[in-house]
Amino acid sequence: MLPKYLLNEHLAGQQLVPILTDWQLPTYQIYALYSSRHKLPLTIRTLVDFLVERFRGANW
Predict the structure, then answer these.
(1) Residue 31: its pLDDT value, please?
(2) Left, alpha or beta for 40 (phi > 0: left; psi -120 to 50: alpha)?
(3) pLDDT at residue 9 in the model
(4) Per the confidence metrics, is the pTM higher than 0.90?
(5) Gene3D superfamilies this protein is in (predicted)?
(6) What range does the domain containing 23 cover?
């Protein structure tokens, strides 16, 4: 049981074959926590924006 993003290349190259395809692990969410939006440092806003773009639509 490994995340799909670690296996995508091997699955595409048919080095690995998925089994138990009708069974799935529970899904999880990723949260970014910060103290307040009031006077939010630009570095934090930039990180949150990056994380949203990076993980949007990811095939985990």
Answers:
(1) 84
(2) beta
(3) 92
(4) no
(5) 3.40.190.290
(6) 4-55
